[in-house]
UniProtKB/TrEMBL annotation:
Residues 5-316 form the Thymidylate synthase/dCMP hydroxymethylase domain. The gene is thyA. (6R)-5,10-methylene-5,6,7,8-tetrahydrofolate binds at residues 221, 315. The keyword Signal does not apply. Its EC number is 2.1.1.45. It comes from the Bacteria. It catalyses: dUMP + (6R)-5,10-methylene-5,6,7,8-tetrahydrofolate = 7,8-dihydrofolate + dTMP. InterPro entries: Thymidate_synth/dCMP_Mease (IPR045097), Thymidate_synth/dCMP_Mease_dom (IPR023451), Thymidate_synth/dCMP_Mease_sf (IPR036926), Thymidylate_synthase (IPR000398), Thymidylate_synthase_AS (IPR020940). GO terms for biological process: dTMP biosynthetic process; dTTP biosynthetic process; methylation. It is found in: Cytoplasm. DUMP binds at residues 23, 178-179, 218-221, 229, 259-261. Transmembrane segments: none annotated. This is Thymidylate synthase. The lineage of its organism: Bacteria, Bacillati, Bacillota, Bacilli, Lactobacillales.
């Protein structure tokens, strides 16, 4: 089954990962250099040993495809996966005068009363992003993150490059090219990003009527992040394959620092006791062609049978 690739990764890092400190001060079991391969002709690699909210994956990907970097679009689609980074920008600003939010991620996980205060403050923050355009412009924007790099890479001459559009044109007209690459890692812009890109570079490959994609991910949060990354890039590969009149082939996922946060170990152990269900199928609106024309309702998952969710706290 497709999911075995992911479960084998989790098991491997549990057994062979080394204790390592990290930026978030959470601590990890870490292993450097690991690769998974998913055959997209056999189904869509959305995990079934826990429920993974596909609506968040597709709205985030559409956010990237639009070249957007402000969480307002995500909030309009009830997607809160980037809230913490924008919220941190707000509560560390000189304009914030609410309750102390220092180290809110760790404190919320350990202190029930503080978590209540934190959730209240974050809800107020999200409401202001949705309803106060000036506030949203100032505190909802995450800087030059994925959407900006994919669609509006800034050059030294002041121009911009639409990497994604260019790579699609290359797939259509020069499918044997070895230069079909999109990079999100722009060294000059890293300091202007709320979170430097974890999935840093991806390359496409065409053979036998199939489009394959390989992603290099420098930092991989196995329990929370990687399931989203697998599904997101599988979706991207399918969308581009459809536009280019190709079949989706393989998604190859190469990980740099593959890690399990220490506060996710019980959760991943529980997940490894579960038996995968058959992979679901992806439905794309046949009336849409360009990947830049899709809306939320144009992308659906069918026959998705899964076990109950397993919750974990994001490390910020």
């Amino acid at each position: 089954m497709l999911e075995e690739e992911y479960l084998n990764l989790a098991k491997f890092v549990l057994e062979h990962g080394q204790r390592k400190d990290d930026r978030t001060n959470t601590g990890t079991l870490s292993y450097f250099g690991y690769q998974m391969r998913f055959d997209l002709t056999t189904g869509f690699p959305l995990l079934t040993t826990k429920s993974v909210p596909f609506r968040l994956i597709k709205s985030e990907l559409l956010w990237f495809l639009h070249g957007d970097t402000n969480i307002k679009y995500l909030l309009q689609h009830n997607n809160h996966i980037w809230d913490e980074w924008a919220f941190k920008k707000w509560v560390t600003s000189n304009e914030y005068h609410g309750p102390n939010m220092d180290d809110f991620g760790h404190r919320a996980a350990k202190d029930v009363e503080f978590n209540r205060i934190y959730q209240t403050e974050k809800a107020r923050f999200c409401d202001r992003i949705l309803n106060d355009p000036e506030f949203a412009t100032k505190y909802g924007d995450l800087g030059l993150v994925y959407g900006s790099q994919w669609r509006n890479w800034k050059t030294s001459t002041g121009k911009t490059i639409d990497q994604l559009k260019n790579v699609i044109e290359t797939i259509k007209h020069h499918p044997d090219s070895r230069r079909m690459i999109v990079s999100a890692w722009n060294p000059e812009d890293v300091d202007q990003m709320a979170l430097p890109p974890c999935h840093t570079l991806f390359q496409f490959y065409v053979n036998d009527g199939k489009l394959s994609c390989q992603l290099y991910q420098r930092s991989a949060d196995i329990f929370l992040g990687v399931p989203f990354n697998i599904a997101s890039y599988a979706l991207l590969t399918n969308l581009i394959a459809k536009e280019c009149n190709l079949q989706a082939g393989d998604f190859v996922h190469t990980l740099g620092d593959a890690h399990l946060y220490l506060n996710h170990l019980d959760q991943i152990k529980e997940q490894l006791t579960r038996k995968p269900h058959p992979a679901p199928q992806l439905w794309l609106n046949p009336e849409k062609s360009s990947i830049f024309s899709y809306d939320i309702d144009d992308i659906k998952i069918e026959n998705y049978h899964h076990d109950k969710p397993i919750h974990g706290t994001v490390a910020v």
